[in-house]
Known about the structure:
alpha+beta
Amino acid sequence: MPKKLVIVESPTKSKTLRKYLGSKFEVLASGGHIIDLPPDRLAVDIEGGFVPQYMPIKGKGKVIAMLKKAAGNSSEILLASDPDREGEAIAWHLSRILGDKKKKIGRVRFNEITKTAVIEGVKHPEKIDLRKVDAQQARRILDRLVGYLVSPLLWKTLYKGLSAGRVQSVALRLICEREAKIEAFVAEEYWHIHANLDHEHATFLAKAVKYKGKNLVIPDKAGADKHVDALKKLDYMIEDVEIKTVKRNPFPPFITSSLQLTAARALGFSAIKTMRIAQQLYEGVELGVEGPSGLITYMRTDSVRIADEAKKAAAAFITDEYGKEYLKIRSYKAGKSSQDAHEAIRPADVFRKPSSIKGYLNDDQYKLYELIWRRFVACMMAPALFKQTKVTVAAGEYELTATESAPVFNGYRK
């Protein structure tokens, strides 16, 4: 009996899907794009309406032949490339190469590569989203136009071989404009004065903030010395003590940009390294006898939205692990500029603690998974509470303040 053919982008992803789908399916990988603009010419008909002139990528002949043969022997073709614009374009190109009026072709999307998500996706194939295909095609054409038409200008001024990219050219201009502002900046000197004060066997540091009822601005050392001399001769009296409870909420779940930024700050990863490791975690990592398993949701997203099922799982985990008082389920909404095509980056299974799979991950994979897992769990927890004490001190015509925060409830910081 003919099998259903599932085509994914990467061999790693194909291993994970084979485990979940079983013997009734054949899973093959395209290795990314199989069709593109040829590298040796512009290949865009500008006069004819910017029509791209696609052709098979050099070296992809064997892959295309393999896919055509498998498609001819299958009962149905399911295109399961990544759920973004590039993945949609890959699915579209595959459908045109493998298309057969007698053969049913469906588009399958997985936001996470778990058994439930994969089986559900295969059960309900959809149509290729031509809007995403058009978006990818427009971007690809712009890349080509900028690269082929602007790069030669660089060769004339600098040296041959430089490339002017659609994004990097604009980014370079922004950097140059910002650098010009930095160069034009005129530094202004300013000084602060603090006083070490003793009160009932306690010592605290207070900052001089006002003089004669106005904000204290000290532009130079001479002015600072003058105020210090005056303050040394004065008596100090506590005028007011304000005590209040302050909440500190957790950060929202990761999107692509915030994951890259946080991984750079916390782990020292470059943006490229972060995305490469995230791709590995998404496609599936070998977990011993369990086999390859997808550990996180799709890592290219601009939405902080979280699926209801994931919220329920987080609620159960937090209640079991920390107690009900630590639970605070939130609904994060995507901003107006967000495409909101995929939910936030989160662990595929929140009960899969980083420590439980540490032995199966390399050092970088573990660090990034732990970062994603912690961020997701924290965003569904109660805020941290602090007791904030603000002391206002009077000294002649001066006003000084001191502020201290003490933790009351650690909440998400747990």
